[in-house]
Amino acid sequence: MVVPHFGVTLPQVSRTWQDAKMAALECEQLGFDSLWACDHLYGSPRPENPVLEGWTLLSALGAITERVELGMLVSPPGFRNPAHFAKIIATLDHITNGRVVPGLGAGWAGQEFVSYGYDFPEPRVRLEQLAETAELLRHAWAEPDLTFTGQYYRTDHLTIAPPPMRRPPLLIGGGGEQVTMRIAARYADIWNNFTGDQPRLDHKVRVLHAHCRAVGRDPATIQVSQQALVVIAEAADEVAALLPRAAKRYGGNVGDVYGPLALSGTPAVVAERIEGHLTRGCTHFVLDFFGRDPLIAARLFAQTVLPRFRD
Predict the structure, then answer these.
(1) pTM recorded for the entire structure
(2) Are residues 167 and 141 in contact, defined by beta-carbon separation less than 8 angstroms?
(3) What is the spatial distance between Cα 236 and Cα 172, in angstroms, rounded to a whole number?
């Protein structure tokens, strides 16, 4: 039996440090496998919405949690020099005793880049920077005295000391089939499918596996992850009342909350939908629980769905 990995998105936008701290500690106690932050400098959809900085948040949580992995979904290369970024991740890996899962993406929120003084080049350049950053990180964590010369980044006798406790598993997120997913096939340990592409998971997995074979990689060596909104309640009528609100609040960003793969329903239905993901090769989930208090839904999931997928 495949044992799926269940991660939880942390409260981060328009929430306080205390909100994030208490949610993280409870989700670890409930038995979830990982906690995830986003690397945004503005709180969507408006710049004035407060948001906690992602890597600072993970560092603080790394010192007070004990078991859960801590991941980022996802960091654009343009925010940080990748050699320095490798050092940041290695340090956090020591703070957490080897529990960091760095996630990379090309970045899309141009206003964040410009407001903070970063360049926001055309998509082709951002994707080239993504590939180069992924390559540099993998070399930097494993090779002392690294000299790396790329089109955008370089190092001169770089040594990351101390190196990370383990070679951090690298996640790459994004559904671009021609470039982004090819980069994931080459460099990622985990590829994450965006919520909006959840209904197309079958197709996306086929594309990913084709890219793996094209670069000479066994598709079984890359884990498929799905970012997903969870709308769960004990009774079907409660779910029916929640679904229109979820669809209105999140719109197309979460795909079809009514579709056959949507994690919407009673615990039995949600568990069945997870089984559907497993048959499609997806074994890793980053869950965003819907509700006025998302922890209520997280508790119900932990009590009723998690045990179905544990030995």
Answers:
(1) 0.96
(2) yes
(3) 35
